[in-house]
Design a protein that fits this description.
homotrimer, 420 residues, alpha/beta, Rossmann fold, four-stranded parallel beta sheet, 18 helices
Chain lengths: 420, 420, 420
Amino acid sequence: MSAASLLFSCSMHVGVSHPKLAAKSSACCLLNQPWNHLKSKTPFGHSGVLEKSKLSHRGDEILLRAGTLHVESAPSFTVGQKFQLDDVIEAQQFDRETLNAIFEVARSMESIERNSSGSQMLKGYLMATLFYEPSTRTRLSFESAMKRLGGDVLTTENAREFSSAAKGETLEDTIRTVEGYSDIIVMRHFESGAAIRAAVTASIPVINAGDGPGQHPTQALLDVYTIEREIGKLDGIRVGLVGDLANGRTVRSLAYLLAKYQDVKIYFVSPNVVKMKDDIKDYLTSKGVEWEESADLMEVASKCDVVYQTRIQKERFAEKIDLYEEARGKYIVNQDVLKVMQKHAVVMHPLPRLDEITVDVDSDPRAAYFRQAKNGLYIRMALLKHHLPNYTSLAFNSELLYDTNLYDPKYLDNNMWTKF
Amino acid sequence: MSAASLLFSCSMHVGVSHPKLAAKSSACCLLNQPWNHLKSKTPFGHSGVLEKSKLSHRGDEILLRAGTLHVESAPSFTVGQKFQLDDVIEAQQFDRETLNAIFEVARSMESIERNSSGSQMLKGYLMATLFYEPSTRTRLSFESAMKRLGGDVLTTENAREFSSAAKGETLEDTIRTVEGYSDIIVMRHFESGAAIRAAVTASIPVINAGDGPGQHPTQALLDVYTIEREIGKLDGIRVGLVGDLANGRTVRSLAYLLAKYQDVKIYFVSPNVVKMKDDIKDYLTSKGVEWEESADLMEVASKCDVVYQTRIQKERFAEKIDLYEEARGKYIVNQDVLKVMQKHAVVMHPLPRLDEITVDVDSDPRAAYFRQAKNGLYIRMALLKHHLPNYTSLAFNSELLYDTNLYDPKYLDNNMWTKF
Amino acid sequence: MSAASLLFSCSMHVGVSHPKLAAKSSACCLLNQPWNHLKSKTPFGHSGVLEKSKLSHRGDEILLRAGTLHVESAPSFTVGQKFQLDDVIEAQQFDRETLNAIFEVARSMESIERNSSGSQMLKGYLMATLFYEPSTRTRLSFESAMKRLGGDVLTTENAREFSSAAKGETLEDTIRTVEGYSDIIVMRHFESGAAIRAAVTASIPVINAGDGPGQHPTQALLDVYTIEREIGKLDGIRVGLVGDLANGRTVRSLAYLLAKYQDVKIYFVSPNVVKMKDDIKDYLTSKGVEWEESADLMEVASKCDVVYQTRIQKERFAEKIDLYEEARGKYIVNQDVLKVMQKHAVVMHPLPRLDEITVDVDSDPRAAYFRQAKNGLYIRMALLKHHLPNYTSLAFNSELLYDTNLYDPKYLDNNMWTKF
C-alpha cells in the first residue's frame, strides 16, 4: 500500500477505528506538556497530532452510525461527516512518510487545477479564514485551494475585531462560535501558540496559517515540495539558506523538515547580525545533518542544488537603519550567481522579494520562486482534501448527492451509509 | 395545514395572488406612520409587513407570466422570480404563529446543515451583506446560512465608503444600486431606522442585521428559538434577564417577543445604573406579562428556566470607569449560580462575553450560549429560505435547471412556467 | 456571420490559430511604445490588443494539444484551457464592430440574470478582484457578474498591503503570484498605467477596473450600452455632457467611444473651472465629431437625446472651497430641466450623485441612472463570458464535465479534446 493510499485509507476508515473516542479532556492537558508526545495511528499523527473527541450531540450521532457501519462491514464513506481528526499546527508534526503522502496528493492536484472546469470534491464544505493579521498572499492561496476543489469560504480579514480591547472576547470563545458556522478553520494570528490553543478548542480541523513568530507549517511544506518537484529528490540534497536566518521563520521550519531526509547538507549564508541561531544548528547536529556557515555566496551557490534566498526584514532593525542597509546589500542573487550555479540547481524565495534577487534572474529557468508560490496552492489543496471528507469515490453518482430525499432525516437514520 | 406549510404556501402562490400590485407609493407613506399598521395575508405579515410592488419592467413581466399561469392552473413555481414580499425589520413584526412557522423551518435546517454535503435550495441566488459597521459574528452566520443552502454572497464590510463624507451618496441611492446586483440585502447600519429606509427603497427583501441602537430582530428570533429548543416550551417559562438591561438591545427585543406567549414571568437583575427602562416594563404590564425586579441573582437563578446573562458595555460608561467596574463585577454567573439552578434550566448569553460568565461554567451541560450562537445559523437559514424562492419541489429535476436551452429567451417567452 | 458569432468564433478557434506563439519578449517591448500598434485578427484586437504567449509548462502543453486538435480537425473546445488572448485596458481599444458584439452578448445576459436560477457558464473559474483602492460599487458589480455566471471570486480589497512600503513588492511580482491562484484578474489601481503593466506581466486576462486618473473602460462600455438601450441608436445621437468635464474620466472615455459612431453631436456644459480639455476637443474634431460648448443647460437639454450629468469632485478643489461651491451649484438637473427635455430623452449619471440631480427626478421614467448602474452588470457579464472559456456548447452535457474520470491525467493525455 503506497503512502498516499494509506493517507486516504485513514480518512476512509475513520469511523471504524474510533480514534475520536479519545477524551477531549486529555487533549486539553496538551497545553501543559509537549503536545507531540501523543501518538496516534493515523499517518498524520506519527509524530504527534491532536486527537479530537466529538462530545457534542452531533459527534455522538456520527459515532453511533460509524459503529453500525462497522458491524455491517459496509464501506465507510464519510459523506456529510464534516470533521476530521487532525490539525496542522507546526512543521515538526509531519514525518517523512506523511510528507510523501501529502506530496503525492499535491501532484494529483496539479492536474485537477490545470485541466478541469473545477473539481467538486469539497462541494458543500465551508472553510473559515480567520485572519487576525492581514496576509493576502496566504489567504488567497488557501481560498483558491478550497474553491478549486468546489468548496466555499467565509472570509474574515479583520478577525481582531472579534477580540477587540473594548469587547475582550477570548480566542477560545471566538473559535467555539466560528466552528458552528464552518467545517474547517484556517487561522493566522499575531501570537505564537495561538494555533494550538485554537486546535485544542475546536471540534473541527484547524490549519495554522502562521502564528506570530511561531510556525507557518504550510509554507514549510510547500518549500520542501518545491525542492522535490524541482530537483527530483530530497535525500542527498545541498541547500544554501541565504539572507535573514535569525528572524525568518521559513528557513527555520525548512531546516526542521530537511532534517527528516538523509545525507542532507545545509549552508548558512547571512550577514553577521542575522545569523542562524544555535537551536537550529544543535537540532541539525542532533539529527546528523551536516551544516556549515559561509560568507562566500558564490562558492556556496556553485555547490548547491537549491539557493534559498530570503528578504532582510527591515522591521526587525527598528532604528538601526545603517545595520539594515549593510545587511540588505550583502548577498544578492544576480546574474553572477546564476553563472556559477549548476544547470539543474534552482533559486527559491518565500516572497515578497525586494532587490535581494535582481529582476533579470526571473527569466532564467532556474528561477523557481513563482513556481514555488504556485506550489502553495497544490499543497493547500492536498491538505484540504485530506482534512475534509473524501468524496472522490462518489463522484460518478454526484447527482445523487443533490437528491434531497437522501438528506431527509428518516432516510439518514436508516441506511444512508450503506446506500452507495 | 400546519403553520410551516402555510408559511411556504405563501411563497409558492405569490404569483397567483398578486399582492405585489400594492402601490410602492403607499409603502413610502410608511415612514410617517407606524408601519406595522399595514396588514397583509401572508404569515409573516400578520403583525405588519411591507408589501412591495415591482414597478420595474422585470416585475411587470413576472406578473404577466404569473397571470397566465393562474389561468392555466399550472403549479406556481417561483423559479427565477427572485423577489419576495417581506422584509425583516424589527422583532415586533412577528406574531406567534409566524414565530412557530420560522422555528419549524429552523429545526429542519439543523438536519440539512448536519447531514448533507450542502443543500442546493438557494443555488443561483446572491445575498449582499451591506455592513456599515463591522460585525463579523453576525456577518459570518448570515453568510454561512446562505452558503449552506447553496447560495452565494457579495460581501461589503466597509459599506460606509459608499456614503463617505467626500462622496455623500444617500443610503437610498446605495440600495438602488446594490439591489441591481443581488437578490436579498442583509444590512447592518449605525443609525436607528436605516433598515426601514432601505426596505422602503428596495424592490428586493431587506433583512435588518442591526441598525444602531434600534433593532436586531434575528438575534431576538434566535434567542426565543433557543429557549424553546432548550426548555421545550415558551408558554409558562420563567426568564431571568441579567446584566446591562438599559443598553442591551437583545434583552429589550427578547422582552417584546416573550410577551407573545402565555403565563411568562420575567425577572430583571441588574446593577442600578443599567436597570430596565420603563417603556419595556409598561409594555409587559400592558400585555399581562408578570415581571419583577430583584437584586438577588441566586434566588432568581433558583426559580428560572433561563438565566439570560449580558455583558456590561464599557463603552456606555465613557469616563465613569468606577461606575463601570462596580456594575461589571456585581452579577457573575459562576459555579455557585449553577449549584442553585434547576437541572433543566439553562444559561444563555448573546456573546461576546467577558467574565460575566466564568469559564468553568462552559463545561456544564446547562451552558447553552454556544448552542445559542449556532442557532443563529438555523434561524438565518430559515429566514433566507423563506425570503428567497423555494426550489425544493424542483430538486429532483435539478439538472433541468442547468439546461441552458430553458433560459433561451424564445423558450422563456412561451411556456417556461408550465414546463415542469 | 454576425458580429457576436464572430466574437465567439474567436475564442472557439483559439487553439487552432496559435496566436499565442507571439513571443512574450515582444509583448514586453510594448511598454516603450504605443501598445496599440500591435495588430491581431481577433475582434477585440482590431484597434490594438496584447497578444500573450504562454511560455510556461502549462502553456506548452496546451499548445501541443491544440496542435493535435488542428490535425484531427476536431472542434476546438477550450474546456479547461483557462486562458484568453485579450485584456481590457482602455476604452479606445474597442472598435465599433467589437462594441456591437459585446452589446449583443450583454443583452443576452439580461435574460440570463433575470430568468434563471443562475447560469453555470463559468463554473469552475476563479476571478481575482485585486483592488489597490476601494471601489465597492465597481467591485460588487464585477463579483455579481462572475457569480451570476456560475464562477467564483477571490476578493482582495486591501491589495495595497501586497506592496506596502515595509515590504515593497513590485506590482509585477504580485501579478505573477495572483495569476497562479486565479483565471482572470480584475484590477483597480491608484496609478495610471498600472493596468497595462499588469496585462503585460500576466499570462491570464486582466481587466482594468480603473487605474488612477487613467482609464475605466468598463464604465465607458456600460455608458455607451445604456445610450443604445435607452435611445435605440448610437449613430446620430445628441449628447450633453454636464458638470466636471476636466477631471471626470467617465466623460472623457465616453467622448472617445462616441467618436466611433456617425453623425454624433456633443454639447459640453460645465463651470469654467472644470471645462473639457483640448485633447478631447481636438480628438473629436479629428474624427469629424461635431461639438460645442454651452453655458445654457436648458437649451442643451431641450435638444439632446442624453443629458449626461456628473458630480463636481470636491477633492479636486483642495482648499479652494469657494470655487467648489460655485461650480457645484451651477448646473443642476431638476424638474425644470425635465420639462424641457424631449419625451424619448434620458438623464444619465455614473453615480454616486450628490445634489446635481434632485431626488424628485428619480421617479421620472427618463431618469436612467439606476438602469445604467444595472447595465454595468450585463456589460461585465459579457466581458467575463468572452474572456473566459466558452462552455455554452457543452451545456447539454454539463454532467459530463463533473465526471472526474475525464480529468484523470491518463484520459487527458490521450483524447480529451476529441471526446465531445
